[in-house]
Records
---
Amino acid sequence: MSKLWVRKSIIDLQNESSEGGLIKSLGARALVLLGIGAIIGAGLFSITGSAAGYNAGPAVTISFVIAAVACAFAGLCYAEFASMIPVAGSAYTYSYATMGEFIAWIIGWDLVLEYAVGAATVSISWSRYLVKFLEYYDLHLPAQLTLSPWESATLTDGTIVSGMMNLPAVFIVVAMSLLLVRGTKESAIINGIIVGLKVIVVLIFIALGWAYIDTNNYTPYIPQNTGTFGEYGWSGIVRAAGIIFFAYIGFDAVSTAAQEAKNPKRDMPIGILVSLAICTVLYILFAHVMTGVANYTSFKGADGIAPVAVAIEHMGTMNEAGKMVPAYPWLNKAIIIAILAGYASVIMVMLMGQSRVFYSMSKDGLLPKIFSNVHPKFGTPAKSNLLFMVFVSLFAAFVPATVVGEMTSIGTLLAFVLVCAGVIVLRKTHPELPRAFKTPLVPLVPILGILACVAMMISLPGDTWIRLILWLAVGFVIYFGYSIKNSKLNNPKK
């Protein structure tokens, strides 16, 4: 039993960060862009409308603030760890240093849900938006090659066809994986371009929409509760916060790049907290404009990009027939381009995060050595990237997104809980260690982070918990069958 709780020395971890292997090529700006690239996906364009229409009304802006505060608690804890333990493993490494190998394994295995499964889920959505975008130009991909075998589609002539494989989803996973193999610096440059594109589109929407805000749409700002928890009123604001929290997922991926940061003690906290702050401001402004140009009730029943399309339709003037004529009909196409770009950068950062977590687990002996082999020319875990390319591509091609969509969220929240707990533990066990960044108001901030994340986990459906337990059970089999026998900490002679 003592082997389960063996901890890795903080000094050893700090020494690891200076060892050769991964190339240190990321500065503070690249890390901020990495965070923004992981956070802003299509969730902003789709979730905002549904959360306003069904839960919070115009007060969805308050929901974004609540969700941001909950993320900030976890972000402050991540920042402290990343500044003092600049190693690639993120929450896995932090747990290894504070709560022992078994908990570290659980969180490392759990992060597969956030990164690998999350990347596959996002790639499926990327495929759906690509099909929608091509239809604007009368280009139609065969439905059989854009759906998994478990899905079907009705063609314009009424024929129902079953999917064979989701080929566009495979394409984007392969493209982003090969980019990561080529090098972290090159990936960061491409990510910076993509981030610039999607942030510009968000700013254009905010700037153009501001002139069409009708303040009457903000009355009532907090619609009266219908008598059902979560349908407007303050309970609706809280429920909406739980829903849109998942639009913030991704900032923690910055910490997986700690070993490739030029000056991690200074730049890691900047990357995590600044990217979170920038996205929060953009989210609040976006939601304010969206619910200002169109009444929140008009977003009911809209899905995909439809909520944004509803808002764009209200940015115009009435013609003689009393019909609204949109002033910016091209904006819908621009939004889809931003979504495609946003999803591409999310996929890239998630794939990078997964390979870096497994890199650290492999260095510790908990996984086969292939996951920590670094390419002699590119300085990246190329073999690991290629293995995940195959795994994620297969998932994206043949499994519908709905099966494990919420598993991504519960995996992330569990990681946040353990990181917050780890800060409290490390302050008690190693108060003397130098910290380039210190989480303020410990233990209050970590405790609030734990409570906020646990509350959101509880709000998730029961079947999501069942899938999490089954996933962890598979992880236990691997740990007790392979990892504990090959752990370098438990078997120093190996």
Note: The longest strand covers residues 152-154.
---
Amino acid sequence: MKHIVREQLANSVAVMQQVMEEDSILSAVAEAAEVTAKAMMSGRKLMVAGNGGSAADAQHLVAEFVVRLMADRPALRAIALTTDSSILTATGNDYGYDHLFERQIEALGQEGDVFLGISTSGNSTNVLRALELCRKKKITTIGFSGKTGGKMVPLCDYNVVIPSSVTQHIQESHLALEHIYCMLVEQCCFGADFAKAK
């Protein structure tokens, strides 16, 4: 069984190595962080959504923004659109699962906000509908996807497309980059040396 553990770790590391060498991915993460920080410093917010493991990522990432990642600092305005069971079930029941995130953006989204959609395939209909509405409402869009990026690519201002077709390895790279994205936003908002000073 140990050889399976070693093999899977090696596969994950190989994908992350590809990510590290892909300048377009690194640039997208850095630029998305700068835009997000600017929005937050202007009183706007980050909204994040995804399905399944990507929903867990959305909640994990938002927790880092609201609580902290690197060091003590003021809370940053972020919300996961995956957590309110009453909204999710009412929307799913009354309008259909495809409208879960779109409906919440209709209620909560404002011009100048940022929406980060996570979909390993890039083709999750409820994420796509949310991205389409964001474009209409002048909300900046960030896509974390995999494979070819799917239908999300033209709907996103910033695309982070993991070069893998294996869902678990896409998610592993997503989480690493989500942490870095949050770290960069913190640095933009509070200064590059704020973590060292605490």
Note: Residues 2-197 form a domain with the Rossmann fold fold (CATH 3.40.50.10490).
---
Amino acid sequence: MTSTQDLKDPGYLRSFGRRQGKKLSPARERLMAHLLPKISMDCEKPARAHFAANIDALWLEIGFGGGEHLSAQAAAHPNVGIVGCEPFIDGVAKLLSQVQEAGLENVRIHGDDARQIFPTFKTADLDRVFVLFPDPWPKSRHHKRRFIQTNILDDFARMLKDGGELRVASDHMGYIRWTLTHLMRHDEFEWTAETCKDWQTPPQDWISTRYEEKALAKGDKCVYLCFRRKNRS
């Protein structure tokens, strides 16, 4: 399992690029200063301790981008606690705006590398993990920076409940092939697809992301992979 100390090691590779774009508006600066500390993950506390007692499931979204998928899922599932990780400050600020506007109380944010909070999740804590349209790092020499790696899947397998779901989506076919290769050879996961339609179309409760909509508008194809965590017995 990746620890916070591991992330300080010389061999540590970031799976993301820049962390900030344009200067935030004054309103979003205020959200970063006042709302973010209230709903940020504390790496010293168990993940479940961040949520109210009525939360009966935990989901994790890694790289939530503009936050539209996470906030819509949180609104649709008020009894699910959703932890979102996003190192890009602009994305964090956008999600904070959505949380405030919708009055969402079941969202928690980690504005940095997702691996830093993996230890806060106990074994079989998570019901669902989303990795939607991650940076594909297309150049061969950068493939080692792709988020889907064997050690990350080991972490997911530990954190997910038996039958828990891992969703990965991308419009980059090289990344899809990479993901399939790693997941198909991992002993703890099984692909739920039975026909081509299962990976060519999103799941029933899918909520589109802005990035996905842009890709589809350009005529690019998107692939939606759903894997199930096998039973531990």
Note: The first strand starts at residue 57 and ends at 62.
